[in-house]
Amino acid sequence: MYNLLHCPKCGSDQLAGFGNKQPISLTDISFNKEEENQVLADLFSGDNRDRQCLHCGFSWNAEQQLLQYQDDQNQINALTFKERAKRFYADYESGQVDHARQIIPIEAIGVYKRKGIKAAYRFLKLIEVKTGRFKRRAMFAAAAVILIPVAIYLLSCN
Which segments of the chain have a pLDDT < 70? Predict the structure, then answer.
């Protein structure tokens, strides 16, 4: 929801609809879920869905922005854990922290909420290291289980 109530270009919360006399300022307001839904309904209601940032002057269509946001979320939700983690790493490491927050894999949400995005990043990297070690050890164990009986059989045949 963060991006829907901010300018997509500069991030300002000083917005106005074309024809609105008063800006929609969200700086000093905190919303519960019902109030947030009402603000979104008001923001997208009526025939005029065009918005303009009072800070940088950027103009956009709020309905198209909402549809794009929903499409992006659907694409993110369709990703596997591995793909989502890969995108999260890329965004976090390139400094796109706001975008990285939107695609944190479900396995790291609890860590993110308690300790922040840096801790979530470290947690996911640790999971990656641990699962890599586990896979290598499992493959070694499987190879040993197969090769030891074969070696015993070959030695007993001689």
Answer: 1-4, 17-33, 35-49
Give CA–CA dist 8/146, Å, rounded.
58
If DSSP codes are grouped into helix, strand and coil, which group holds residue 51? strand
Rounded to an integer, what distance in angstroms lies between the CA atom of residue 24 and that of residue 54? 10
Exposed (0-12), middle (13-18) or buried (19+): which is 92, by Cβ within 10 Å?
buried
CA nearest 89: which of 48, 123, 133?
A: 123
SS3 127: helix
C-alpha of 63 from chain center: 21
Domain positions in the chain are 2-71, 80-157
pTM recorded for the entire structure: 0.48
Distance between alpha carbon 128 and the CA centroid of its chain, in Å? 18
